[in-house]
Specification:
By secondary structure, this protein is mainly α.
Length: about 475
């Protein structure tokens, strides 16, 4: 039995052991091995992503059904692993330039990724919390990784304090669910929820507190207050990581809790998600307009995009989960490309984050400007780029579920939000000339930026098969 359990959690176990090995290697090596640990971690994340992606299609469980490995978990884990690998690969040049390259950084990213994989496969509230805290504790540290920076330290402290509050809310919700449901297992909770009659008030309050705690992790309004400051204050590679893998893991965990444990209470949690979606889309589309710092702009952009992702989830259908997965996959690709550009916004060797520095950038680097313009158009959801199809799927899921008002609000927010994306394009091609950016872009960063832009254009053919994979993954979660 133990061997069977260990085989189910083998990818997580391998990553955890390699994280410990990397820590020991860096601590006891006679020379600086930070670069080797860094690239070894990137290779391991990519390799484990392939391993998970090609696992057999059946659903398996471990440790008394508290850990589940199904199609939904595998799809989400591949996004988490490859998103983390891309963010980590991009970070090396920046860490070297800023003298932040330490072997602890990739180890922390690896441990955070293990926590995210546990979150995605959690089938019990206790396992869910273990994965969540493993991720959070590592992210608190990397947010404040630049110890000589007041802003980085402030970002780490804010994230820690507000993260602790959200963990408290989640634990309180879990305790209410356990008290009224008599179990922490999702299957047991689902049996209690499915009983005839109205849902017990204690379970309703537990669901509300659980949703609030998880909403913090996906930076959904009104639990978004940490996002702009942490995005701006953290080292840019950390911001790139925050914008990719953790968003996928938290969203997938949210879907798992709602459908596996509270699948019989869709009307109750649909109201919560509809509010979170509406608030996030509205805030993300309006608050970003006045931003002058591109990292803060991307923070509000991420809040808005999580609103669209939650719209798909709010539909409460298998199509909604499918649209969520498609949207997250597209969002991760777009974020990787944009941050590959932001990481190289420099002037005379100093990082620059002011949007005004992009004035007439197309005359300096026309290829880079064109790639970034494609990504901005895609983030805005302008057809026929792939970003449009991400929004199309979540809007369709919402309309099919009868949430027409939410879909209309989403379309209005998309039109408003397009302004700040198009403003960047306008500055690059028609803005005022400035003595702006002159930093070089490493080949890897150029490749990721160009590849992301190409995917946004070429992917309109069949989304590279992501639609089919997402549909198959969603079918394993929603009965």
């Amino acid at each position: 039995m133990l061997n069977q359990d260990l085989s189910v959690v083998a990818p997580e176990l391998v990553l955890a052991l390699l994280a410990m090995a990397g820590l020991m290697w860096g601590a006891y090596a006679r020379s600086d091995v930070s670069r080797m640990v860094h690239w070894a971690t990137v290779f391991v994340l990519v390799a484990v992503g392939f391993w998970v992606g090609f696992q057999p299609s059946e659903t398996t469980t471990a440790f008394g059904d508290s850990f589940i490995n199904d199609g939904f978990a595998r799809f989400s884990k591949v996004m988490v692993l490859w998103g983390a690998a891309a963010a980590l690969a991009m970070s090396l040049e920046y860490l070297i330039r800023t003298e932040l390259l330490k072997y602890e950084f990739p180890v922390l990213i690896l441990l955070a990724t293990v926590g995210m994989m546990v979150m995605v496969s959690a089938n019990d509230l206790i396992v869910l919390y273990l994965g969540l805290e493993l991720q959070s504790l590592a992210l608190y540290v990397v947010a404040a990784f630049r110890r000589d920076s007041v802003r980085s330290t402030e970002a780490g402290l804010k994230y820690f304090v507000l993260g602790s509050l959200s963990s408290g809310l989640l634990l309180y919700g879990a305790s209410l669910v356990y008290g009224y449901g008599g179990t922490t297992a999702f299957a047991g909770i689902a049996l209690v929820v499915a009983q005839p009659g109205p849902l017990p008030l204690g379970l309703v309050f537990g669901l509300v507190f659980l949703s609030a705690g998880i909403a913090f992790k996906v930076s959904a309004a009104p639990f978004h207050m940490w996002t702009p400051d942490v995005y701006e204050g953290s080292p840019t590679p950390v911001t790139a990581f925050f914008a990719t893998a953790p968003k996928v893991a938290a969203s997938a965990m949210f879907a798992r809790v709602l459908f596996s444990a509270f699948g019989g209470a869709v009307p109750e949690w649909q109201q919560i998600l509809a509010f979170l979606s509406l608030a996030s889309m509205a805030l993300g589309s309006v608050a970003a307009i006045g931003q002058t710092n591109i990292k803060r702009l991307m923070a509000y952009s991420s809040i808005g995009h999580m609103g669209y992702a939650l719209m798909g989830l709010a539909s409460g259908t298998v199509l909604g989960v499918e649209s969520l997965l498609i949207y997250l996959a597209i969002y991760v690709v777009m974020s990787v490309g944009v941050f590959a550009f932001i990481l190289n916004m420099e002037k005379d060797g100093q990082p620059v984050t002011e949007i005004a520095s992009l004035g007439l950038y197309s005359r300096v680097e026309p290829a880079r400007a064109a790639a970034l313009a494609v990504l901005m158009f895609s983030l805005a959801g302008i057809p026929p780029l792939v970003g449009f199809f991400g929004k199309f799927y979540v809007l369709k899921a919402a309309i099919d579920a009868g949430l027409v008002w939410l879909a209309v609000a989403g379309m209005i927010a998309s039109v408003v939000g397009a302004y700040y994306y198009l403003r960047i394009v306008y500055l690059m091609y028609f803005g005022q000339p400035v003595d702006g950016l002159n930093g070089r872009m490493p080949t890897l960063h150029w490749g990721l930026l160009g590849l992301s832009a190409i995917i946004m254009v070429v992917g309109i053919v069949n989304l590279f098969g992501v639609e089919t994979l997402a549909a198959s993954a969603a079918a394993t979660l929603v009965p």
